[in-house]
Design a protein that fits this description.
Elements (H helix, E strand, L loop, with lengths): L6 H50 E4 L2 E4 L15 E7 L3 E5 L19 E6 L2 E10 L7 E10 L1 H36 L1 H15 L11 H34 L1 H13 L2 H27 L8 E2 H15 L6 E5 L5 E2 L3 H18 L3 E8 L5 E8 L9 H4 L16 H12 L2 E6 L6 E8 L5
Parallel strand pairs: 9-11
Antiparallel strand pairs: 1-2, 3-4, 3-7, 5-6, 6-7, 8-10, 11-12, 12-14, 13-14
Amino acid sequence: MAVTASLHRRLLVTAGIVTVAFTLLAATGLEQAFRRSAIAAERDRLRGQVHTLLAAMRVGEKGIRPGASLPEPRFARPGSGLYAWVLTPEGGQVWHSRSAIGQSLPAPEWVTPGTVRFRHGDGRFRMDYGVSWEPLSGPTRRFSITLIAGDEAYRASIAGFRRTLWAWMSVGCAGLLLALWLTLRWGLAPLRRVTAEVDAMHRGWRDRLGGHHPREIAVLTDNINRLADGERERTRRYRETLDNLAHSLKTPLAVIRGALVSRIPADLDAAAEQITRIDRQIEYHVRRSGAGRLEGGGRTAVAPVIHRLARALHHARLERDVELQVHCPDGLWYAGTEDDLMEMLGNILDNAWRYGAGHVAVTAADDGGGRRIRIDVDDNGPGIAADVREAALTRGRRLDTGGDGQGIGLAVVRELAGQAGGTLALDGAPELGGTRVTLILPGGEDG
């Protein structure tokens, strides 16, 4: 099976790409915002210089020019990086700052009063400012002021901000990626725990996943547990079915073996009947292995089943001379299939044959107005002590460790009786002195 990339790696790569992209966009946006803010600051600075010049302006009969002393010393220093011109519409340029002497600068331009034009390019900031001056006496004068300033300080500010910004954004991005890695590792820890538990289940170190998982994956773990429980139940049922089949085939195989040895026609007829029984037993157990319970419906006469089982046991255990007494009315019916009744009575009678001392009595009767039947099987064997009777009904528990049994016969009967809605009980046989096995089953009313 192909293995795709890990969920942790996929999430981390995706989160990393998103984080880096966000960092780049955020840093670019912040840099552009700072650049616009810095340009706006330069515009305000030049506007302040214009107001400074206007404050020093002298307008008279001799023309328009600033006073001899300017508040900004850079206007008086050649090549200082701050340059100014005053222009009139009639006479052109009427004044320029000493800082512009000998400099190769763009020509100033006249603009109408009320116009403010700001530009940035070629490494310079430029502002053209139109003015309409109304003195206390005399005509209104119109002129414009052009200021040009170098952008070295602006570019140095942008470069410094960029270095600081990208340094901190890089640190922040790295810290965020680390936080994302830690968060993903913590957030995906339950999945790693589930993976480890599934691997432990695969290795046989545990049967189920743990019950304490986050709500988002609890549905998954619960389904896995149900799947594992169902698989274990199916495995147990198949194993028990094989054990039950092996146990139920012992008597038919013993009859066939005896018939092959004796070659007596009556024994061969009994062997042929047992072959049919084997075929039915195999089919019966295969059906039960899939269904896991008794098949509903059906109605079976009890007496014929008891007599058929008795004949089979007589042929299977020729070494035992057993006297069998059967007290069963012909109108007694079991509300179930013949295969189920054969399986239950077969195990009980086989135990009575094996552990009795030559005398077995079967008494079957109506025990509830046709709705329930009771079957007692007594033997004259050593009996089963009261304190170990429950153990005798437990699968795999053998009281006779020296025999060839598997310890599942009576356990199978109790399971089948319980599934049919009946019960199985052990007691002492009041007349024969051995063991009494009492089987209570649903009855089929005489039709």
